Amino acid sequence: MKTETIEYQDGDVSLRGFVAFDDQTSGRRPGVLVMPEAFGLGTHAKQRAERLAKLGYVALAGDPYGNGVEFKDLQEAIKHAGALREDPAKFRQRARVALDKLASLPQVDASRLAAIGYCMGGTFSLELARDGAPLKGIVSFHGGLETQRPAVAGQVKAKILVCTGADDPFVPVTQANALAEEMTKAGADWQIISYGGTVHSFTNPDADSAGIPGLAYNKLADERSWKAMASFFAEIFGAA
Q1: Domain coordinates in residue numbering, the chain
Q2: 2-237: what CATH class?
């Protein structure tokens, strides 16, 4: 497997992503954008990119803030994430430039793209779908489901899979219900999987170390949601 840091631009902001793919395989293959949590591009998203490469995809873990910055302090991360989300167009553009970079890679079949994301990254993936990005599908893992710009009829090209914790205090069931109504009105192909006894950040083994109520790793929900994603990708891409 080949992994490397790759640079790309969003206007005057220099971004530093992480690419993973099987360099022993020839030919173009589907590309998957991986958007990380509010802390920035770190180990969790990079490991997911490597796992996607082992499944036969080209994965690009995107940089939400620039220069590959990663925050250790939650309040600092929340401050920067909030500033980015204040402007919906800017927020969507930050993910779009990463998707464009992924599509431009010589190993990628640009007609077969998907986006996944964790926490804030899940919101990124949904906003790409709402924006009509040329995606076969998106997957949100414990992502925020609210938006300032709801999807409009006929605009969503991507099929949608949302994996969320039934007991997530940061993404309550009202958000899931609102998303279902929004995507139904937009005519989108959507599904929401809610995992019982599961809170926020359930895919991240380091979630418990933050010591924050409502954040906890759930091994079973993590494994189930990854299998759901793999099945979803088999549906939208066929054999990788």
Answers
A1: 2-237
A2: alpha beta
